[in-house]
Design a protein that fits this description.
With 201 residues, the protein is mainly α. The protein has eight helices and no strands. The termini are far apart. The relative contact order is 0.09.
Length: 201
């Protein structure tokens, strides 16, 4: 029995295991993308008309920031809430101008989890100090980034009438990829890949 365990694998077995690992990783990525697509679609379906009413409060950048924080705290994932916001922008329910503060809020909301986890060390003062200071580094980075970028976005948006610096950067990138003011629509490659399965539901 010990000889069978010590016997080296043949080259064919190594190739099969490698192929199985690659297929497993690709399948995992596919199911992850499919899950994000289905979650965004179900959010729009569940919200329906009410989702449009809910996101009318994001006309104020501070409200958008709070919506982003709360959404991320609820789903415990800034990637998920950002993907939902991207889906809402793609569906035309939220404009890019109002999505920027929501995504900033999502970045703050994702660091709330670290702070909550650090509270598990509340029994030991020294451990709590170290854990809390380590957790709040991410918080402070996100807070300070928003403290600089959000007022800049609001001020430039008030002067220019459309949006701030981040709005114009995203508009420039979009125009570079798609072209300025054309009727060309960008077909998402991930949507194309996952739609055969997600359209069944």
């Amino acid at each position: 029995m010990a000889d069978a365990a010590a016997k080296p694998m043949g080259q064919g077995q190594v190739v099969l295991i490698t192929i199985a690992k690659i297929v497993g990783v690709l399948a995992s990525i596919y199911f992850f993308l499919m899950g994000l697509d289905m979650m965004g679609s179900s959010f729009l379906v569940l919200g329906g008309k009410g989702a449009g009413d809910l996101f009318t409060i994001v006309d104020n950048p501070i409200s958008g920031l709070m919506v982003g924080i709360l959404a991320t705290v609820l789903v415990q994932s800034s990637s998920t809430s950002t993907s939902i916001v991207v889906g809402l922008v793609g569906a035309g329910q939220v404009s890019v101008k109002y999505a920027i503060p929501i995504i900033m809020g999502a970045n703050i909301g994702t660091s709330v989890t670290n702070t909550i986890v650090s509270m598990a060390h509340a029994g030991e003062r020294l451990e709590l100090e170290r854990a809390f200071s380590g957790a709040t580094v991410h918080d402070m980075f996100n807070f300070l980034s928003v403290l600089v970028m959000l007022p800049e976005e609001v001020i430039i948006g008030a002067i220019a009438g459309e949006g701030g610096l981040l709005y114009y950067i995203s508009k420039g990138i979009t125009e570079a990829v798609v072209g300025p003011e054309t009727d060309v629509t960008f077909t998402s490659p991930t949507k194309f890949i996952v739609s055969p399965f997600t359209d069944l539901f």
